[in-house]
Structure formats: structure tokens, C-alpha cells
Amino acid sequence: MSVKIRLQRHGKKGKPFFHIVVADSRARRDGKFIEKLGTYNPITNPATIDLNVDSAVKWLNNGAQPTDTARAILSYKGALYKKHLQGGVAKGAFDEAEAEKRFSAWVEAKEAKVQGKVEGLSKAQADARKAALEAEAKVNEARIAAATQAEADAKAAEEAANAPAEETTEGEAAAESTEENTEA
Q1: CA angle (58 as vertex; 57, 64 as ends), nearest 5
Q2: Which of 12, 28, 82, 136 is the most buried (most CB within 10 A)?
Q3: What strands, in cross-sheet order, belong to the sheet with 48-51?
Q4: Is the pLDDT of residue 35 over 90?
Q5: Nearest to 33 by CA among 65, 58, 62, 5
């Protein structure tokens, strides 16, 4: 019986969510499993991975073979590195305390890198929101200026239309009064 560390798909269509499990290689993808090691949510940015590293290392030491995606996840969370460090302890290259110190330093560096990405994404999102608001403000100012200009043009046209009409009425009145004078 060969044992695999693999992903079980959950979630609805278009919104995948995976459980990281240890299962018999003959079992169906979403079927029977031996132990659940964690979860993986690829929808979030960066992807959310919750993994029990100690259990994963135990299963790797017992001979469980991870699939390609599971291997990438185990590497990302440091399970493969921890297994590597335990191999160094077994060979006598360094002691258990040194291995734990190296692993914790690696985890801290990895967390800092992930946190930097999260902060970068939130900063980029805030900058995009600010740029969108500025663009919207420019469009609104242009729209208000155009409306003001249209009102001014309409008033000018109305005044121009009223002014010649008044002159014509005054001219007609003057012409009528001269006609009255000539008739009299």
C-alpha cells in the first residue's frame, strides 16, 4: 500500500478550496483518507495555507509521497526543509537545538516575506482607489465646467435673441410714429 499526501477538492464551482490529506493512493480523489494535515485556499491573495508541519514531516519520514502540488505546498510551509534538517541531526552534522533554531529563523524570514507581499498588495489597492477617486474628481470638475459653460452660452444666446427683438420693436414703434406724423 503506497501512501500519498495530496489535495482533496472542496468548495463550489469556480471557488476551489482544498484539504491537504494523507490517503491511500488507490482511494478516490475526494474519498477516504487517513489523516487531514491542513487546508489550502488558492482564492485569496496570497494563498491561505494552514498546515500541521510536524504531522507532515512525520508522514514524509514514514514514506508518504506528496503529489507535485502538495510538494510545492509542503516546501512553501517548510515541511520539506524541516525533514532535511532532521536528516542532518540524524547524521550528526548538528544537534536538535541548532536544527530548531535554523527552522524558526527560516519561518520568520518566510513570514516577513509574505507580510511584505500583503502590505504591497494593500498599498497597491489603496493607490488604485486614490487614483480612481482623483480621476472621478477630474471628470466631475469637467462635467460641472461644461454645464456652467452651457448655461452661460444659453444665457448669452437668450440675451442676444431678446436684444434684437427689443430694438426691432423700438424701431417699429418709431417707424409707426413717423407714419402717424406723416398721415396727420
Answers
A1: 85
A2: 82
A3: 48-51, 35-41, 15-24, 3-12, 65-66
A4: yes
A5: 5
Closest CA to 43 of 10, 80, 68: 10
Dihedral angle computed from the Cα positions of residues 21, 24, 29 and 35, in that order, rounded to the nearest 10 degrees: -20
Residue 167 has pLDDT above 60, yes or no: no
pLDDT value of residue 53: 94
Q: Which cell numbers hold the place of 148?
A: 456652467
Q: Hey, which residues does 20 pair with through a beta bridge?
A: 7, 38
Q: Per residue in 74-101, pLDDT tens?
A: 999 999 999 999 999 999 888 999 999 9
**pTM of the predicted structure, to 2 decimals:** 0.70
Burial class (CB in 10 A: 0-12, 13-18, 19+), 18: buried
What average pLDDT does this structure show over 123-146?
Answer: 91
Amino acid at 129: R
Identify the CA nearest to 3 among candidates 92, 70, 53. Answer: 70
Phi, psi (deg, nearest 5) at residue 133? -65, -40
Distance from C-alpha of 86 to C-alpha of 100, rounded to nearest angstrom = 9
